[in-house]
TrEMBL record:
It comes from Rosenbergiella nectarea. PROSITE patterns: HTH_LYSR. GO terms for cellular component: protein-DNA complex. Keywords: DNA-binding, Transcription, Transcription regulation. One of its GO terms (molecular function) is DNA-binding transcription factor activity. Pfam families: HTH_1 (PF00126), LysR_substrate (PF03466). InterPro entries: LysR_HTH_N, LysR_subst-bd, WH-like_DNA-bd_sf, WH_DNA-bd_sf. This is DNA-binding transcriptional regulator, LysR family. Belongs to the LysR transcriptional regulatory family. Residues 1-58 form the HTH lysR-type domain. SUPFAM superfamilies: Periplasmic binding protein-like II, Winged helix' DNA-binding domain.
């Protein structure tokens, strides 16, 4: 049964008149009458009682009308949903977040703007370390990821920088005015495991070497944010991006240092061949710099 038969039938059932239904459908009346007759022959029973003043539904026609309307409604919804997905206003995408990136407010300002513009689009989220994010992007379980740079393995993906920030020195309050050189030389350095973000790890170690110090490596922190609590507990000192300084940890002091080489970026990474309309809209929003 062709879908147009259902549309013709519903139009006649709602107008109770072949002429008015034909006008509504923008077709002539004779072909419409022929299509309804074909439909009745296909079903095997009359759907209308033909009257001088118009038509009335038979009992079978009443039952068929309810089902036909539902079928057309579901069909229209399916078409609209499919077209919406193609335009990137419906559907879903899965985004990854580097653990340290979630502290930067700019990300969620952009995502809130995206939700306002595309309320029917669903963004699923997953927080993980850089190593796992790169693997998930490679395997296709993530559509895009907010990553922390530098990251050597991210170069296999397309990157759109969102913001740049300096690294801050994190020490105990009593060391707030201790010279940087003294802290680097005398205190243990708290870092995350290198395999989680090798390039960022190496950047910090290289900075220490530039200052003429081979750092004493303390007990490792599972994540960058956890290293702040370890500083408060007396394990040593660390470096974190400026956005993490919003973590108000008692006994901890954050210090901005003059070290342009200690800078990090947050970027959106996605596969070069990805053509997801939702990701395209997200990229467009990010590239405009609109909050």
């Amino acid at each position: 049964m062709e879908l147009r038969y259902l549309r013709y039938f519903v139009a006649v059932a709602e107008t109770r008149n072949f002429t008015r239904a034909a006008e509504k459908l923008s077709i002539s009346q004779p072909p419409l009458s022929q299509q309804i007759l074909r439909l009745e022959r296909e079903i095997g029973t009359p759907l209308f009682l033909r009257l001088k003043s118009g038509v009335e539904l038979t009992e079978a026609g009443e039952a068929f009308y309810k089902e036909a309307r539902q079928i057309l409604l579901l069909t229209d919804q399916a078409l609209e949903k499919t077209r919406g997905i193609a335009r990137g206003i419906n559907g879903k995408a899965t985004l990854g977040f580097a653990c340290s990136s979630v502290f930067h407010p700019i990300l969620f300002k952009r995502l809130k703007k995206f939700h306002t513009l595309y309320p029917s689009a669903t963004l699923l989220s997953e927080e993980s370390n850089m190593s796992q994010l790169m693997q998930s992007l490679r395997e296709g379980t993530l559509d895009a990821a907010f990553v922390r740079l530098p990251c050597q393995t991210s170069q296999e993906f397309t990157l759109q920088t969102i913001t740049q920030e300096s690294m801050f020195l994190v020490v105990r309050e009593e060391e707030a005015k201790t010279p940087l050189e003294t802290i680097l030389r005398d205190s243990p350095l708290i870092l995350f495991p290198r395999e989680l973000a090798p390039s960022l790890y190496d950047m910090i170690i290289h900075f220490c070497h530039e200052q003429g110090v081979v750092p004493q490596l303390a007990t490792q922190a599972p994540q960058m944010s956890a290293s702040i609590a370890m500083v408060a507990s007396g394990f040593g000192f660390t470096f974190v991006p400026e956005s993490l300084t919003i973590i108000a940890m008692p006994g901890v002091s954050y210090r901005k240092i003059k070290a342009p080489q200690l800078t990090t970026e947050i970027a959106l990474a996605w596969r070069r061949w990805d053509r997801s309309p939702i990701i395209k809209h997200l990229l467009s929003l990010i590239s405009t710099g609109s909050d």
